[in-house]
TrEMBL record:
UniProt binding sites for heme: C443
Name under which the protein is recorded: steroid 11beta-monooxygenase
Organism expressing this protein natively: Gopherus evgoodei (Goodes thornscrub tortoise)
Residue stretches of biased makeup (Gly residues): 1-13
Subcellular location: Mitochondrion membrane
Any one GO BP annotation for this protein: cortisol metabolic process
Similarity remark: Belongs to the cytochrome P450 family.
SUPFAM superfamilies according to UniProt: Cytochrome P450
Main location: mitochondrion
Cofactor(s) the protein needs: heme
Length: 496
């Protein structure tokens, strides 16, 4: 088996570690990779079964069952996909310690193939090695650093306020003074409006009563891109083009629409920049252009990836958070009280207001524990690593199962209970909140997403009480991101 090459080099000794002076020493008791429990024996048969039973959408539940059946570590091969999966926080910590200065994540071949076919440059989501590191260090300053975050906070705040105005306008047309709604589409429009404003300094008008058709096409393209990515993960793009031309064609056309939308926004800001408009902060892209530390094609590649990734990664957690607050009214009330307290301290910088609301932040962390956007975090260790007393060779694809970890009684007490206070206790929570990844390769949009969600919830909760028609658990499906099988109906009532 390909994944075992080098794994049994130590025989019963398992891994070997470098001692002083570079000497290689065995790690006592570590077993070789081939001894790790295995899910399925044949890679292509496993893929066929997944495809035949349409289990791609239940992949998070399949992983959870595998952990329950095989223990906190197992290996699997599905088509071209060959990995070791782990469950426990201490194993995530081991992977962090072995990731090196160029952390590597699993490549998405269909995305890379699109860039090659269309002659687009790859952004940091798809890059690895020195090229990834040099781009990432430049982008960090404007996208994830505290100083960069403070600059785009007013943009996100303005869009959150406009969303509240939209909801009040809708409710005013209802004689019952309430609104029961499937908020799925509205949240997508809100997140696209907010992220585009922060990225390009440009409003799209998506919170108007009749959003423009072009933006609607973009949202549809993002949904199609995500839906078609999952089955393409396990099969080489060249083979997929031959086996299922429609799936491949839909995927490529979706990416083309995403790039077209982003390119139009980029051209607008670039024209203003070249015309020498009065200098003020006008979004992340304008700052990157002004700094001129990255070539234009790299800026375009990265901003396009941010645009595509900034919609779903905030819309879904917001939907799940609103649902959990609706069926946990005591938590909703406590957060509303915290918001009022934070605002009673007088006018302050938005960053300071958000920092004074730990319960609200913990509520989002609790949502992402139960409903992580991505169900795994991947790394390729740069040196042999011992996980659960098994030697995993350098270069092996390793995944931390986030969905399974979040619902494991080995990691969390009462894991099915929505309890934001668990994150405010003195319990050690190291490597338990990994929805945005860890280390140097954590999601670069983390601060953008966190602040966007906090500002949205702050404004919504101070204006509305939220109830839900059904308090039953939401069934979830995996379509490259975790989403509800059927969006919940939520009722909004204005607070007088």
């Amino acid at each position: 088996e390909w994944g075992d090459r080098g794994g049994g080099a130590g025989g019963a000794e398992g891994c070997r570690r470098g001692g002083k002076g570079g000497r290689v020493q065995p790690v006592p008791g570590a077993r070789p990779r081939r001894a790790i429990p295995r899910s399925g024996r044949n890679a292509w048969l496993s893929l066929y079964r997944l495809w035949r039973s349409n289990s791609f959408q239940r992949f998070h539940l399949v992983m959870q069952r595998n952990f329950q059946r095989l223990g906190p570590i197992y290996r699997e091969t599905i088509g071209t996909y060959n990995c070791v999966n782990v469950l426990l926080p201490r194993d995530a910590a081991q992977l962090f310690q072995s990731e090196g200065i160029f952390p590597r994540r699993m490549g998405i071949e269909s995305w890379i193939a699109h860039r090659q076919i269309r002659n687009h440059k790859c952004g940091i989501f798809l890059l690895n090695g020195e090229e990834w590191r040099s781009d990432r260090l430049i982008l960090n300053k404007e996208v994830i650093s505290p100083a960069g975050t403070r600059k785009f906070l007013p943009f996100l705040n303005a869009v959150a306020q406009d969303f509240v105005t939209l909801m009040h306008r809708r409710i005013s047309k209802n004689t019952r003074r309430s609104l029961t709604i499937d908020l799925y589409g509205d949240l997508f429009r809100f997140t696209l409006e907010a992220s585009s404003y922060a990225l390009y300094g440009e409003r799209l008008g998506l919170l108007e009563e009749s959003p423009n058709a072009e933006s609607q096409r973009f949202i549809s393209a993002v949904e199609t891109m995500l839906r078609t990515t999952l089955p393409l993960l396990f099969i080489p793009p060249g083979l997929m083009r031959w086996v299922n031309t429609k799936l491949w064609r839909d995927h490529i056309e979706a990416w083309d629409t995403i790039f077209k939308h982003a390119d139009k926004c980029i051209q607008n800001i670039y024209q203003e920049f070249c015309l020498g408009q009065p200098r003020k902060y006008s979004g992340i892209m304008a700052e990157l252009l002004m700094q001129a530390e990255l070539p234009l094609d790299s800026i375009k590649a990265n901003v396009t990836e941010f645009t595509a990734g900034g919609v779903d990664t905030t819309a879904m957690p917001l939907l799940f958070t609103l649902f959990e607050l609706a069926r946990n009214p005591s938590v909703q009330t406590a957060i509303r009280r915290e918001i009022a307290e934070a605002e009673s301290q007088g006018p302050r910088e938005l960053s300071k207001v958000l920092n004074s609301m730990p319960l609200l932040k913990s509520a989002l962390k609790e949502t992402l524990r139960l409903y992580p956007v991505g169900i795994t975090v991947q790394r390729y260790p740069t040196k042999d690593v011992v996980l659960q007393n098994y030697c995993v060779p350098a270069g092996t694809l390793c995944q931390v199962g986030l969905y399974a970890m979040g619902r494991s009684p080995e990691v969390f007490s009462n894991p099915e209970r929505y309890d934001p206070l668990r994150w405010l206790s003195k319990e050690d929570n190291s490597f338990k909140a990994l929805a945005f990844g860890f280390g140097a390769r954590q999601c670069i949009g983390r601060r953008l997403a966190e602040t966007e969600m906090m500002l949205f919830l702050m404004h919504v909760l101070r204006n509305f009480r939220i109830d839900t028609v059904s308090k039953a658990d939401i069934k979830t499906v995996f379509g490259f991101i975790l989403m509800p099988e059927k969006p919940p109906l939520l009722t909004f009532r204005p607070i007088d």
